[in-house]
Design goal:
single chain
Length: 56
């Protein structure tokens, strides 16, 4: 079984990610927790994966 190292996001990660992606916190929440579709949601998921290395 392969183990994956996961980084725990620091407090305020949603606001930081929203600012970096140029969108709102609500877009970040919908993209990561509710699997929203669209251009901004794709950008949010890409940035999250690059920053935290999780397969979200």
């Amino acid at each position: 079984m392969k183990t994956t190292e996961m980084k725990i996001p620091k407090r305020g990660w949603q606001q930081e990610l929203a600012k970096t992606a140029g969108c709102t916190v609500q877009t970040v929440i919908k993209a990561l927790h509710h699997n929203a579709t669209g251009r901004k949601a794709g950008i949010v998921r890409k940035l999250y994966q690059e920053k935290y290395g999780n397969n979200q």
